[in-house]
Amino acid sequence: MSPADVVVALDVGGTGMKCALVRADGVVLHTERHPTDAGRGPDAVVDTVLGVAEGLAGKARADGLDPVAVGIAVPGVIDEERGIAVWSANVGFRDVPLRDLAHERLGLPTALGHDVRAGGLAEARLGAGREAGHVLFVAIGTGIAAAHVVDGTAATGAHGAAGEIGHILVRPGGPRCGCGRPGCLEAVSSASAIGRRYSELAAVPATAAEVADRAAAGEPLAVDVWREAVEALADGLATGQALYDVEAVVLGGGLTRAGARLLDPLRAALHERMTFHREPRLVAAALGDEAGCLGAALLALDSLEK
Ligand SMILES: [Zn+2]
Fold it and tell me: Which is the most buried residue in 9, 67, 101, 145, by most CB within 10 A?
């Protein structure tokens, strides 16, 4: 590839899109953010995604660069093989052949990926998991999802749904999960679940970040809610380690802004749960909310090598 070659990368979320022009060596030359306005319906969102991608390719050419491929990351269930966004509640996609649509509109080879898997790919190759061959990236925000990356490739699963560790059953009969079943990890330990649980018990609204602050200040109710969430998360990660046997678990997403208040007790709780398994290194993600976009760029670059 020539030094002027760039890929157009988009990470499409329910509220916004993070977009970039990225060189083959991973250097980001330009970034943009755009609203998704998912409420407008899937056709309008697809049109915006393609329009933004087209705009970025045009910007690249105007800057004397050569756009060679497009990478798009989307949440939900993604069939990466066929380039179809099978189901994405946040964005309103149902069986959208986004890869072919982008290819037709831009005339460039396009890769479609899952947002968390793309983020995990970027963290494993360029971020906090750089030194490790086997990485589990876990994003904890409104939900909990993960990506298992081995030697720079994220496993997709047979149906595009690998890594849904948010739906590991950790508390049978516990709080009802968005998927319909009670007691999933996500229903106990996601940022929204922590805020919801505390708000119910305290009868005042609070976010997970506020619960972390109050727990650190020693407020008994916040201490309990935080501890329950950390314990359940350790149960989920221990199951993850039993399945994947990784060197590093990289934690991303909004909840990790709690820093040591999350990582220290979680590390201790995970340590307690290890019997013969080797304990993974537990680290905070390094790339922030750009990870998904960088991962989309990596998917685009990888697709050129195939
Ligand atoms: Zn669930």
Answer: 9
